[in-house]
Every structure is written in C-alpha cells, then in structure tokens.
Design goal:
By secondary structure, this protein is α/β, with parallel strands linked by helices. It contains 23 helices and 20 strands. The N and C termini lie far apart (121 Å).
C-alpha cells in the first residue's frame, strides 16, 4: 500500500482534518507508538480516499481491484469499463504514486478525453515506464494527445496503441513526436489502418528515430508504395532489432524493397513477414538481400504462397552465405520433398544452429507440361541446319514434278528421313496440309503452313519479350520508388545523395549510397599553410595563403583549375545583403573594396581577383587575325588552282 499524505496529492480536501493531527498532540511514549501506527494507517487510506473522492467528483464507481492492489508495481485494469471519466479519476490518484511501473488499460474505451488525462498524469508521474492503451477507441481525435504524451514523458519506455483505428494522417503525429524522443524502446501500432501514406510516415519514423528497438505493425495495410517507402526507412535505420509486419499484404513488390533494405541494415535481428501474399518470386527477391545481411537471426514466412522452390531458395542462401546469422526460418505451411530434406541436412552440418520449421514431407515441384512443338517448326529447323530450301525438301518427295504428292508418299518420306518427328506430330502435320481429306499434299499448302508457323512464332516471341519487358519495368519502377523514398527519409543535415548513386549501368540499378558532404568539396589544411580543395575529379586547386606576403601569380598550367560551389553562389546572388565569399569559403575584407567600386561586379568576380583583364581582348584579336589570314590564303588558292596543286 502507498504511504502518501494528502499534501503530496493533486486532489485534497482542505476542510477535512487528518486523523494524524489529533494523534500528534499526545506526549506519552506509549501513545506516541500508537499514534505512529495510526498515522501510517491514515496515510495508506489517504490514497484510497483521494481516489474515492475523485470518483465522487467525476461521477463514476471506484474500481475495487485498483484499491486492493494500490502500491503494486504492475496495475492491470484490462476490461474494467473505465471510460474517459474513470480514467480521469485514476489519473488523479496516480499522480504521486511512486511504486507503479506498468499500467495496463486495454479495452476500457477511454477515448481521446482519457488520453488527455493520461498526458497530465505522465507530466507529473516519473515512474510509469510501460503503458498499454490498446483497443480504447482513441482514433484520430486522440492521436495528437498521444503525440504530446510521447513528447512530454521522460520515463515512458514502452507504449501499446494496438486497435485504435489510427489512419495515415495520425502516423504523421507519431513520426514528429518520435523523431525527437529516443527513450521509447517498444512501440505497438498493430491492428490499425495505416496504408500508403502511413507507410511513408512510418518510414520517416524509422529513419529519424534513434532509440526504437521493437516495432509491431502487424494487421495494417502496408502494401505497394507504402511497403516500399517503409522499407526505405528500414534501410537507413540503425537501432531497430525486432520488426513484426505480418498480415500486411506486402506482396512481391514489398519483398523486393525489403530485400534491398536488408542489404544495408545491420541491426535487425527478428523479422516477421507471415501472411503477406509472398510467392516464390518474392522469396527469391528477399534472398538477394539475405546474401549480404549478417545480423538477421529469425525470419518468419509462414502462411505465404510459397512452395518447395521458395523453401529451397531460403536454405540455399544459408548454405552459400558463410557469414549469415540466420538461426530460425518458419515456413510451417510448406510441404517439402526429399531434396529439401537432404539439402537441409547438409546445411545444418555447416550451420549447426539453424532450425527450419516446415509443414512436412510430401510436397513436389510443379513442372510445367512440355510445350507443344509445331511439327512445321521442326522441319524448318532441320532444313536450316542443313542449309536446304523447302522446295528441295518437297522436290525429293515429288518424283513426277507435279508439285503434288499423295498423303501416303509424304508420310513415308518423312518417316524415312532423319527429321525428329514422332508419329503423332506427323499426323498433325498431315491434318493441317490436307484439311479437305483429298489424300493429296501440294507444295503451296506446305509453303502456306510454313508462313503461318513463322507468324505464330514471331507473335509468341513478342509476347515473351513484352512480358519480360513489363516485369523489368515494374522492377525498375519499384527500385526507383525505393531510391526516391530513401532520399526523402535520409537526413539532409548530415548526408546527401552521391552523384554517382543515381546513375544506372546496363547491369541494373546501382544501390543507393548516402555520402557525406566532404565528397563534394573537402577542405584540407596542408603543412604549407595553404588550402587544398579536393574535387570529385581528383584535381587539386592550391589557393593563396591568407595574410601572406607573396603575391598571387596565376599560371597557365592545365592542372590549375578553379571550382565554384553553385549552391552557395546562387544563394549569394539572390540575396542583396549577402557578403562576398572567397574561393576558400572565408570572407576577405580586402576583396570587398573592388566590389564596391565596380557596380557590375557579380558574385563570381568577387570570389577572387581577376587573372588578367586584358587577356581576353588579346585572345580575341589573335583569333580575328588568324581568320583573316585563312581567308586570304583560301582566296589565293581559288585564283591559282595549279599552284595550289603543285
């Protein structure tokens, strides 16, 4: 039981005297001992009285469970029907409670008003570390109050907000609050209504937060662009260890983005992608990231549309990746075959800690039925291989030269030749050549059949190419969206996009790389007291010493090139009150005077003194003279062509 006095509580009755005041007037030693015991009892009852008085003021019935367990470190009030007013009375009583660590208020319908009272409670109570507000109908009206709670509380480490019907716009409030709050370690946002834009906000949350270790986003609607944007945030995250994304419908698009994120993430230990509509193709995309990941230990892929092929791909990744940390793979709904079992035994010899949960033995790899080969295509390939014409083939059968042969002679000639056709294919070809059942095969019909075969073959090739092109475009579009999302969530204060990272080679899109600002213009102080500006091209520009006595003498060496910072110059030209900046990035007062005298001087001429103002004019004169000489020489050649030839 709590030992708090009325003076320490937020709610007190000044007109009611405490029973301890009458006990304090006694002076006998025996009476002092009794008064001390009675004083303790009165203090213990004071918290109960405060709670009872608060319930009376707000008009609710006190919760007997709370009164019985007052002073415990964990207060479980799930399914107690508190409502907003009951939550207010509870918050008043817990303002000065120094024992409580965990407060569970799930399924109490406290709504936004109740959350507002809890915000005030957490501003005064610094002992509550774990708070459960699941299924309380907080909705969008209470999302801002939850964000205030995250901003104001200095003791809260775990927060459960499951089943409160939060939407995409509400995710923005959580992102803004958790971008500055690194004390929250465990966050549960499952069973809400986050979709596309919600995935973008949550991706920004992962990119900016530096304390969150456990995140539960199961039973949401993160799919397509939302899944890709969220994966982009996971790529740059450096703290998250446990991530639950089950029941989200990630699909193969999300699996592709997740695979790209796992290539760079080096902190995630547990990933749950169960019930996410993944196929064997999605698993293979995920495996591309697992080949580079060295930290993930648990991967849950249960109840996806995965067959033996996907299971084999997962085990092959573990077998072929020596540095993998995978210890548990859950594909409990997949029926495997003997090949999988044998491969798993070999893999477990190299990785003894690996545990794979599968549905049992009895699965099979579904092979596509062999594609029907056009018999006319077989004949054409046979002729092309031997460099023969169709007319040569038919003339060998047509002994009379009438361009017509009987079906019997045609069948016999094809069977006796070395053309790889079986009996059924020969009958199919004869049926196409003799549709009217006349018993005659003519050369024109054979040639027309070949033309139709070639048209069908080209049409089929176009379909295959079109399908492959669409798949590649879809993959490139997803990767481009992923790169754009990574750029959006990457903090601009410390990183920028590398110029080479946005280019794509013929082999495929390059992985995104965030490089520091020093890769653009890195200023290094050398031992000779000069500044050396290192540019991406590798050229170095040595600039004059500040305050040195030696004058600046430019040379015409091609290695001496000047580089400017376009962003800084653009800003300086726009702002009328901007100060001149030298090429070293430091303001030079000596260079300010010429700029004041010349009204036409721009930001480029202020950065350093001109090399030689007369030099451009002399160059222009020499060019004009050369042009005149060339014209005179051409005129002489045109007048006397014989001399020019000699």
């Amino acid at each position: 039981m709590s030992t708090l006095s009325f003076e320490d509580l937020s709610l007190k009755d000044e007109g009611c005297l405490s029973p301890t005041m009458s006990q304090a007037t006694d002076t006998d030693s025996e009476q002092d001992l009794e008064s001390h015991e009675k004083k303790t009892i009165s203090k213990e009852l004071s918290v109960v009285e405060v709670y009872a008085e608060a319930c009376k003021l707000v008009g609710v019935v006190p919760v007997s469970y709370f009164i019985r367990n007052l002073g415990a470190t964990t207060m479980t009030l799930t399914h107690h029907g508190l409502g907003p007013l009951g939550c207010k009375a509870l918050a008043i009583a817990l303002v000065s409670d120094e024992h409580i660590r965990t407060l569970e208020l799930a399924y109490n319908h406290i709504e936004a008003e109740g959350v507002k009272c809890l915000v005030e409670l957490l501003r005064a109570n610094f002992t509550i570390q774990h708070l459960d507000l699941s299924n309380n109908h907080i909705k969008s009206e209470g999302a801002e109050h939850v964000a205030k709670m995250l901003l104001d509380s200095i003791s809260l480490k775990s927060l459960k907000l499951s089943g409160n019907k939060f939407t995409d716009d509400d995710a923005r409030h959580f992102t803004e609050a958790l971008s500055t709050n690194s004390r929250i370690k465990d966050l549960d946002l499952s069973h809400n209504e986050f979709c596309g834009r919600g995935g973008e906000y949550l991706g920004q949350l992962l990119a900016n937060n530096e304390g969150l270790e456990v995140l539960d986003l199961s039973w949401n609607r993160l799919r397509m662009k939302g899944a890709v944007a969220f994966s982009a945030g996971l790529k740059v995250n450096s703290m998250l260890k446990h991530l639950d994304l089950s029941w989200n419908g990630f699909g193969n698009e999300g699996a592709l983005a997740m695979g790209e994120a796992l290539k760079f993430n080096n902190t995630l230990l547990h990933l749950n992608l169960s019930h996410n509509c993944l196929t064997n193709e999605g698993v293979s995309m995920l495996c591309r990231g697992l080949e580079y990941n060295e930290t993930l230990r648990v991967l849950l892929l249960a109840y996806n549309s995965v067959t033996v092929e996907g299971a084999l791909a997962l085990v092959n990744v573990v077998k072929n990746t020596p540095k993998t940390a995978l210890e548990q793979i859950n594909i409990c709904n997949v029926l495997v075959n003997e090949s999988f079992v044998n491969l798993l035994e070999l893999t477990c010899q190299e990785h003894p800690g690996l545990e794979v949960q599968y549905g049992g033995v009895g699965g099979f790899i579904a092979h596509k039925p062999p594609k029907r080969v056009d018999p006319m295509k077989v004949i054409q390939d046979y002729l092309d291989k031997r460099k023969l014409r169709l007319w040569d083939f038919f003339r060998n059968i047509d002994k009379d030269g009438t361009m017509r042969v009987s079906v019997t002679d045609f069948r016999k000639a094809v069977q006796q030749s070395s053309i790889p056709l079986n009996r059924y294919q020969i009958e199919e070809l004869i049926h196409r050549l003799d549709r009217d059942r006349t018993g005659i095969v003519d050369y024109r019909g054979l040639a027309d059949t070949r033309k139709q075969m070639m048209r069908d073959h080209r049409r089929q090739l176009k379909k295959v190419e079109s399908r492959q092109k669409k798949e590649k475009q879809k993959s490139d579009r997803i990767l481009k969206t992923f790169q754009t999302a990574v750029e959006a969530v990457t903090p601009r204060s410390s990183m920028i996009i590398s110029p080479g990272g946005a280019k794509e080679e013929s082999g495929g899109p390059q992985p995104f790389s965030a490089t520091p600002l020093s890769s653009w213009h890195h200023i290094v102080m050398s031992n000779s007291s000069r500044y050396s500006v290192t540019n991406l091209s590798g050229d170095h520009v040595h600039l004059p010493m500040l305050g040195g006595t030696s004058p600046y003498r430019p040379t015409s060496s091609p290695a001496m090139r000047s580089y400017s910072q376009p962003n800084l110059l653009a800003e300086s030209s726009r702002s009328p009150t901007s100060k001149s900046i030298s090429a070293q990035g430091i303001r030079s007062d000596l260079e300010m005077e010429p700029s004041k005298l010349s009204p036409t001087a721009n930001s480029l001429t202020r950065s350093r003194p001109a090399l030689n103002e007369e030099q451009p004019e002399s160059k222009a004169k020499t060019k004009k003279l050369k042009k005149r000489k060339l014209k005179k020489h051409n005129n002489k050649d045109s007048k006397d062509p014989i001399k020019s030839i000699n």
